[in-house]
């Protein structure tokens, strides 16, 4: 068993607790959070110690690996501390607020012979993974286009102030686009060479980057597009059989209330939502919006319970198992990487996704495409 410590017990960590309980290769060993009530809840649930400092957790000798779910602006500091303490690291997305910090973490893990995995869970959605396998098999010929459309109420859900500030890794391009760009790269199967982006702030009373449209060009000639709006007008569940992000029936969209909640009220609401936002045993496949893949000999998209494949012979539905959640599959990748299997979502991959987020916003500012260096 891999003894896992948790740094940060907020919304991101809450989503991992049930998958951790169900996973056979990890034992939750300890946690760290500055909030006494969070530590008390953890100790009551797991009967394991909870520390108020990271140094206390890392120095206790209780852990082999660390999960980091703290605010994005703290990821680099906390992950580097864990690596320097000799721990393998599973880091939430977005990896860092600066791509160079992400690459520094990747190099630090590599130099120490440690595992660093970035938890981009939605490319582990089984329909996405199955489409990737079909692409790699060559059954439909070369992949040419992948389009990701996601429309939600992200802007109007309870938020910490930094989640709305792009300079701190906030706004939909960093917080949600990171999922889209990860999906596009995993399906197109090559490095991203250039990015063209547009970004939008539609609501001055809730100012943030709340929508984007991005085009990613890949070295193999494939093209990916990512469209996201978090303003709660249209919901992409209308395109997915009313199935939401985590495989449950979609809930009504939140819309602008016309009056901003107090930050302390939003934080309280966010913590309450985190305890039930992502359940287990969903009735359908997860849908991070709609992903449509176009290959030379056919197209593919998610269906509520699997995958639809369109060819000259017609439409074939492929049912897929949904007994394991994407976060359980992230934990599979992390455990396998600790065991010596090279992960797809290593530190260099995670940092490259931050580079794409940066490039989308730079292109939006300048009106020009942004070339990405080879990584």
From TrEMBL:
Signal peptide from the UniProt entry: none
Domain of life: Bacteria
Protein species of origin: Brevirhabdus pacifica
Listed SUPFAM superfamilies: Glyceraldehyde-3-phosphate dehydrogenase-like, C-terminal domain (SSF55347), NAD(P)-binding Rossmann-fold domains (SSF51735)
PANTHER family named in the record: BILIVERDIN REDUCTASE A
Domain (Gfo/Idh/MocA-like oxidoreductase N-terminal): residue spans on this chain: 2-120
Gene Ontology molecular function: any one: nucleotide binding
The protein, known as: Uncharacterized protein
Residues in GFO/IDH/MocA-like oxidoreductase domain copies: 128-233
Pfam families, alphabetized: GFO_IDH_MocA, GFO_IDH_MocA_C3
